[in-house]
Amino acid sequence: QRIYDIAVIAGDGIGKEVMPEGIRVLEASARRHGFTLRQKWHDFAHCDYYARRGRMMPENWKEEIGKPAAIFFGAVGWPDIVPDHISLWGSLLQFRREYDQYVNLRPVKLMEGVPCPLAGRKPGDIDFWVIRENTEGEYSAIGGRMFEGTEREMVMQETVMTRKGVDRILKFAFDLARTRPRKLVTSATKSNGIAITMPYWDERVAEMASSYPDVSWNKFHIDILTANFVLKPQIFDVVVGSNLFGDILSDLGPACAGTIGIAPSGNINPEGEHPSLFEPVHGSAPDIAGQNLANPIGQIWSAAMMLDHLGEKQAAADIMRAIEMVLKEPSLRTRDLGGSADTQTCGKAIAVLLS
Ligand code: NAD
Ligand code: IPM
Ligand code: MN
Predict the structure, then answer these.
(1) Into which family does the record put it (predicted)?
(2) Dist CA 325 CA 343 (whole Å)
(3) Which CATH number fits domain 116-257: 2.130.10.10, 3.40.718.10, 1.20.120.1730, 3.90.1150.10?
């Protein structure tokens, strides 16, 4: 019998609304495919916890989480209660770093039925992966404030790129490209202006590419790369970037493909020494939270990525088929897709297709 222990963390805002839909679909999928998910829900890593305890997670959070097969995560952040850098560095960014989830895997795909904001694009024109470095780069804890309150007040924050850290994300991207028909890696850089770390990144890309003669590659500075996401999204296959560039590209890509509400992600520790974490790309969306308006598909697609990661390939593929069917049905689309279905209606429709 296949049994998987899953740590479940819903978080804040719409995280608490889309998580039950992700779980609904996982449970339907487990029944259909004959595996068991043992869920352990954790009541921390959200801003109400912070309001009560003055921290985002208990000191022994690693013990509490234990050794699950994967972590299923919603979204964290409620800036009215806790400044975002405190809530996120106290939760999600801890997981990524402490569990060495150095790959952030973010598919971008224009799905049938989803209105595309780019003129004349159809499904098939936008279908690529953003591979984001997830543990170092611009997201560093090195730096500080000095001379506070004086005229000399200043802040600085270092970007950190290690050879190991850069090479392993590039290797992942080239390996992924090798499995795809077009076999193309695009690197996001800014070596014209960021003249120490980014030329280093470029050097490592060239070096890595030399061991993949069967994979083609190119690079763009991040400014024109963002323009090309909008103007020529069909030219991309696997796009690899540093932590910050990957973050930006992985909201822009899904927006070009219609909505960030369906975009999923996997925070992967490829060696499997630590659990990987699956979550939608979007945040807690305070502007629509509590209204049952959120699109649950980002969470549900993340569930499919999690099952794929756990080896339940058929179950993952079935969820994707169900998502595709629901997206084609106007009455089941949420508001971000121009429809009027609520979160639960959309989630239930996907679950029903699996039962
Ligand atoms: P956001 O992704 O929460 O929202 C951006 C916009 O997209 C909002 O207008 C929102 O309503 C809309 N949106 C997002 N998800 C949607 C969905 N599923 N369905 C329909 N519409 C959706 O980004 P933000 O406003 O920059 O951040 C809000 C909070 O979330 C902040 O605290 C931020 O730090 C946090 N955040 C957390 C994560 C995470 O936990 N992984 C990711 C991004 C932002
Ligand atoms: C994401 C989010 C996070 C990030 C924030 C909430 C810290 O935007 O997962 O894309 O920047 O990595
Ligand atoms: Mn982001």
Answers:
(1) Belongs to the isocitrate and isopropylmalate dehydrogenases family.
(2) 16
(3) 3.40.718.10
Q: Write the pLDDT tens digit of every residue in 274-297.
A: 999 999 999 999 999 999 999 999
pLDDT in tens, 171-192: 999 999 999 999 999 999 999 9
pLDDT tens, residue by residue, 241-263: 999 999 999 999 999 999 999 99
Distance 180 CA to ligand 3 centre (A): 25
- Closest CA to ligand 2's atom 5: 88
Is the entire prediction scored with pTM above 0.95? yes
**Ligand 3 ion: Cβ-proximal residues, 5 Å cutoff:** 247
Whether residue 243 contacts residue 132, with contact meaning beta carbons closer than 8 Å, is answered with yes
ipTM above 0.95, yes or no: yes
Residue 123 alpha carbon to ligand 1 centre in Å: 25
CA–centroid distance, 22 to ligand 3, in Å, is: 20
Beta strands in the chain (DSSP E): 2-11, 35-41, 70-75, 103-109, 127-133, 143-146, 154-157, 184-189, 216-221, 238-241, 264-268, 276-280
